[in-house]
């Protein structure tokens, strides 16, 4: 079964499809009470109805006022909050040379600001109660350049990594009860690629795409215990370290 979430209140953004939807269903199986957030009402309502104790909250996480409303609704509906998962985000298919100002702005808005607003909104609550979990869903592409066509997306997720790690460091001494988790999936068999700005290949058809049910289980396992960097692929950290060692070798050889 994995980590027990019995009666823990969990906010999941981007919960109407993909990783967010399956994470919501997995947390429901583990006993969580769920505030599910997305912009699309119909699918979100469907996911919420399939869960034991869930509330669908239609909101745009790129709008600060919407994020604040999600917090207020969660507290009113469930009486508190234990975990906040920033999963909302979007891809972009564009080569480096073709990137526009709008491309970069949209990637920052959809992948950094959505999480930043969530973190800044829930943090005072967690500080006041001395505990809580903030989890940000990033990407392996933020640490290894496997897909040049995702260059702006990868850069935005790298920015999200830095925000996450800095917050974790900042809280460590005075608020050890607040856990800050970074999730780093690889290619996952969802419709992420199809929904990317500029189009893209269907991620479900890519070689080695990871089962999203497995990804959801691994994220749920890592929210409460274990390493604060959650690589959903078994060899994820090894790939990152190999990439870094390769860079170090290249730098040494060229100096």
Question: Could you characterize what this model shows?
Answer:
Strand 2 (33-38), helix 2 (41-49) and strand 3 (54-58) form a beta-alpha-beta unit. This protein is 48% helix and 14% strand. By secondary structure, the chain is α/β, with parallel strands linked by helices. The chain is built from 8 helices and 7 strands, in the order βαβαβαβαβαβααβα. It has a single domain (9-254), classed as Rossmann fold (3-Layer(aba) Sandwich), CATH 3.40.50. The protein has helices at 18-29, 41-49, 64-78, 101-129, 151-171, 192-195, 212-224, 236-254, and strands spanning 9-13, 33-38, 54-58, 83-86, 132-137, 178-184, 229-231. The model has no long low-confidence stretch (mean pLDDT 92). Helix 1 crosses helix 7, helix 3 packs parallel to helix 4 and helix 4 runs parallel beside helix 5.
Largest sheet: 7 strands, parallel
Oligomer: single chain
Query: How many domains in all?
Result: 1
Structural class: alpha/beta
Read across the widest sheet, the strand sequence of neighbours is 3-2-1-4-5-6-7
The count of helical stretches stands at 8
CATH architecture: 3-Layer(aba) Sandwich
Bulk shape: globular
- CATH level 3 topology: Rossmann fold
How much of the sequence lies in strands comes to 5-15%
**CATH class term:** Alpha Beta
Round the Cα radius of gyration to an integer and report it: 18 Å
Give helix % range.
40-55%
**N-C termini distance:** 51 Å
| Low-pLDDT regions | none
Q: Give the overall average pLDDT.
A: 92
Total number of beta strands: 7
CATH homologous superfamily annotation:
NAD(P)-binding Rossmann-like Domain
């Amino acid at each position: 079964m994995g980590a027990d979430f019995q009666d823990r209140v969990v906010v999941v953004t981007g919960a109407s499809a993909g990783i967010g939807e399956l994470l919501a269903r997995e947390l429901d199986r583990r006993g969580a009470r769920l505030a599910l957030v997305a912009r699309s009402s119909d699918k979100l309502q469907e996911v919420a109805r399939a869960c034991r104790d869930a509330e669908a909250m239609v909101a745009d996480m790129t709008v600060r006022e919407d994020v604040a409303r999600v917090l207020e609704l969660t507290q009113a509906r469930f009486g508190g909050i234990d975990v906040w998962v920033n999963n909302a985000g979007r891809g972009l298919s564009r080569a480096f040379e073709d990137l526009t100002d709008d491309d970069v702005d949209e990637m920052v808005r959809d992948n950094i600001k959505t999480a930043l607003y969530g973190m800044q909104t829930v943090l005072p609550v967690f500080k006041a109660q001395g505990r809580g979990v903030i989890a940000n869903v990033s990407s392996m592409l933020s640490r290894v350049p496997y897909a040049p066509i995702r260059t702006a997306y990868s850069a935005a997720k790298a920015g999200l990594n830095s925000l996450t790690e800095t917050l974790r460091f900042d809280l460590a001494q005075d608020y050890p009860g607040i856990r800050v988790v970074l999730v780093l999936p690889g290619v996952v068999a969802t419709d992420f690629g199809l929904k990317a700005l500029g189009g893209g290949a269907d991620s479900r058809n890519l070689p080695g795409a990871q089962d999203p049910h497995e990804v959801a289980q691994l994220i749920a396992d890592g929210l409460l215990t274990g390493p604060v960097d959650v690589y959903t692929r078994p060899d994820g950290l090894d790939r990152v370290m190999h990439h870094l060692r390769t860079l170090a070798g290249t730098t040494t050889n060229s100096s």
